[in-house]
């Protein structure tokens, strides 16, 4: 289980392009007297004492979109279970109700605290799609295009097609899927609008290596100018709202033998 995160200072590079704002976080702490140095492509180990299987409940905290061979499926499942331990429960400041969210700093700290050769973190990015009145299908298309561009998920048409279909199916069936562990509803800051945070795990093979794959632990925050949860019910691909989105993601190289 992830502990509380330490304070970290990050160098942030911001670049804008059209209506998509990209924020690149270089996860290299600024030097302090009591701060250890980390690098995003450093090898990260999993402690031998953690080689136990998490519950099915933990595994469902991320929807998996994968094109992996059967030999890598077990390691992909272990990766999702491990990330699922950093979903936190807190009280919504507006509704005073309990809500879940994925704690990115805590997730980063989990890997910083461990060592091994099964897992390497390669990148972390956050990028946004500015608010505009468009239909849901177009918004989903922009989300998928952003992931493909920012993480260079090139040459995996089956995965990107499935990713687009999966995301749209989720947001057009929110009434049925709202209780799923991978979806979290919350009011927007100031109470003007609301959003859903959706945890998605993308897993693709590495052509040059039969024994490892690229894993993308991601969250999609889809926000609209509607205030109540049930205002999201009944959306279709052609439903038009003032949508915006924030996507976060960590890219890993995972070895076949990785165990949570």
UniProtKB/TrEMBL annotation:
Gene3D superfamilies: Delta-endotoxin CytB-like
Keyword annotations of the record: Sporulation
GO biological process, any: sporulation resulting in formation of a cellular spore
Provenance organism: Gibberella zeae (strain ATCC MYA-4620 / CBS 123657 / FGSC 9075 / NRRL 31084 / PH-1)
Pfam families documented for this protein: Bac_thur_toxin
GO CC annotation, single: extracellular region
InterPro entries associated with the record: CytB_endotoxin-like_sf, Endotoxin_CytB
Protein name: Delta-endotoxin CytB
């Amino acid at each position: 289980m992830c502990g509380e995160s330490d304070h970290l200072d990050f160098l942030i590079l911001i670049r804008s392009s059209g209506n998509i704002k990209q924020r690149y976080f270089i996860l290299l702490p600024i030097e302090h007297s009591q701060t250890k140095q980390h690098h995003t492509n450093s090898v990260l180990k999993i402690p031998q004492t953690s080689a136990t299987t998490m519950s099915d409940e933990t595994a469902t905290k991320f929807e998996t979109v994968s094109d992996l061979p059967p030999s890598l499926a077990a390691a992909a499942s272990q990766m999702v279970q491990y990330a699922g331990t950093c979903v936190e429960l807190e009280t919504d400041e507006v509704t005073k109700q309990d809500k879940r969210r994925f704690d990115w700093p805590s997730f980063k700290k989990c890997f910083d605290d461990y060592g091994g050769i099964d897992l390497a973190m390669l990148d972390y990015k956050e990028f946004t799609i500015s608010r505009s009145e468009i239909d849901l299908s177009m918004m989903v298309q922009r989300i998928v295009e952003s992931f493909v561009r920012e993480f260079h998920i090139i040459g995996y048409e089956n995965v990107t097609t499935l990713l687009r279909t999966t995301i749209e199916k989720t947001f057009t069936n929110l009434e049925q899927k709202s209780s799923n562990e991978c979806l979290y509803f919350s009011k927007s800051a100031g109470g003007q609008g609301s959003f859903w945070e959706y945890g998605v795990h993308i897993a693709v093979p590495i052509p040059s290596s039969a024994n490892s794959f690229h894993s993308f632990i991601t969250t999609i925050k889809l926000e609209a100018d509607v205030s109540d949860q049930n205002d999201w019910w009944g959306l279709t691909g052609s439903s038009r709202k003032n949508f915006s989105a924030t996507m976060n993601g960590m890219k890993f190289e995972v070895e076949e033998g990785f165990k949570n």
